[in-house]
Design brief:
Length: 118
Amino acid sequence: MGTRKLSNAKWKKLKAFFEEYEGVYTGKKDDLRQFLDAVLWIMRTGSPWRDLPEEYGQWNSIYKRFTRWRDRGIWEALFEAFRDDPDVEYLMVDSTVVRAHPGAAGASKKKADKTRKP
C-alpha cells in the first residue's frame, strides 16, 4: 500500500498497546494498521469521511469504528499512553476536535447586492 504512513517501529508500539487494551478488536494481520492509516489520512487531510480512498476500506465502516473508539475513550487512552513518546506523539489525535469543512466555520455568507446600479 503506497499510502501507508506508519513505520514498522511505530506500528509495533501501537499494536502492543492495542493488544493489551481490553475490548479492542485487532482483527486480521493488517486490519488495525489499515484502520489507523485511514484515520491518520483523514486527520492529515481534513477531508470528509466520504472522500477516504477505497484502498483504506469502506469509509462508513472506518467512520463507525472511529466513533465507537471515541465514545469508549480509546483515543484518549492512546494519547495518555504515548504523549511523552517522541516517536509516536505526532500520531496522537484529539478525536473531539476534527477539522471542519471551511463552510462549517460559521462565517457569514456574502449576500448579493440587490440594488441596481445604472
